[in-house]
Design goal:
The chain has 310 residues and is of the alpha+beta class. It is built from eleven helices and twelve strands.
Length: 310
């Protein structure tokens, strides 16, 4: 069986290019064709050297890892280590998928035409298989990632929550906001953000308006002492508002309804949001991951030393 170096070189450029391009699309990296092409050529040169030479330095796993890092960096120029590791991981996952697809196609065409030289599988139809394997692998890995991503839809992120306060109960639907880790700074209590028009159902609107005067430094002589003790002023930052403050109050407890169980949280603040969270009204609250953490209450108890401070 005769093999041509130029064919092996072109085959590897094609496969490397498709793999790196796909990895960049999945990572949503800044894709520049010239950088991907240069990275593909580097990988192809290594494949040729690996085919021609039997030196241990080329077959060493550390050498292959370093080559992968250099190829990924050339292609995407990651701004930091975290982004680099993410790109490298996706690069390897994509490589495994494409390699398996290409090998399967080679095997289906004619397994007798497959030969391993210094760890590289080659055949008499490398370019055709490289292109077809790359196209098929591209669709397989993109569909796979879409399926995984779609498993975490908005529907899966919606939770039914009951808020209990002085024999009153408020039922609302909230969405899990993975970027929301808002806490009250003194006690580190997690904050559940709820629209004001929903909170009106357990705290009358006129009392809420009086409570909001706290944000402007006014006194609250006409408000129930117990409610005043439950109130906090919560600083927050968001897009377009770097130094905001929000009124919050401590309910008796909340109940989070999950698929197979219910979780009760006593250490929680309700942050009162004065506007609409969503226009379509599908949900009226935002819940951070810290409210799903079973350790958050035990940490807070330790912080308070058995005393509640609000």
């Amino acid at each position: 069986m005769t093999f041509y170096i130029d064919v092996i070189f072109i085959e590897n450029i094609i496969m490397n290019y498709i793999i790196i391009l796909t990895a960049g699309m999945i990572c949503k990296s800044d894709i520049k064709q010239i950088r991907i092409f240069i990275s593909s050529i580097l990988g192809a040169l290594y494949a040729v050297m690996l085919y021609l030479l039997k030196s241990p330095i080329y077959t060493n796993q550390m050498t292959k890892l370093l080559l992968s890092i250099v190829m990924v960096y050339i292609a995407f120029s990651a701004p930091n280590i975290k982004a680099m590791l993410k790109q490298l991981l996706i690069f390897y996952l994509t490589s495994f998928c494409f390699g398996g697809t290409a090998y399967y196609l080679l095997y289906c065409v004619n397994p007798n035409l497959i030969k391993s030289v210094n760890g590289i599988f080659i055949g008499t139809y490398p370019i055709k298989i490289a292109i077809l394997g790359g196209i098929l692998g591209f669709f397989v890995i993109n569909i796979s990632f879409k399926i995984i991503k779609n498993r975490l839809t908005k529907k899966d992120m919606l939770y039914d929550i009951e808020i209990f306060y002085k024999e009153k109960k408020l039922n609302i639907k909230v969405i899990l906001d993975t970027g929301n880790l808002l806490t009250e700074p003194i006690t580190n209590t997690p904050v559940l953000i709820v629209e004001e028009n929903k909170v009106n159902k357990i705290i009358p609107k006129d009392i809420l308006e009086s409570l909001e005067k706290m944000l402007h430094g006014n006194t609250l002589d006409e408000i129930d002492e117990d409610l005043k003790k439950r109130c906090s002023i919560i600083p927050f930052s968001s897009i377009g508002k770097s130094n905001g403050i929000m009124l919050g109050f401590r309910p008796d407890y909340i109940k989070i309804h999950m698929q197979s169980k219910e979780e009760i949280r006593k250490k929680v603040l309700i942050g009162i949001y004065q506007n609409k969270i969503t226009k379509n009204g599908v949900y009226s609250g935002l819940m951070g991951l810290n409210l799903l953490d079973n350790e958050c209450e035990s940490k807070l108890d330790t912080c308070l030393n058995g005393k509640e401070r609000y």
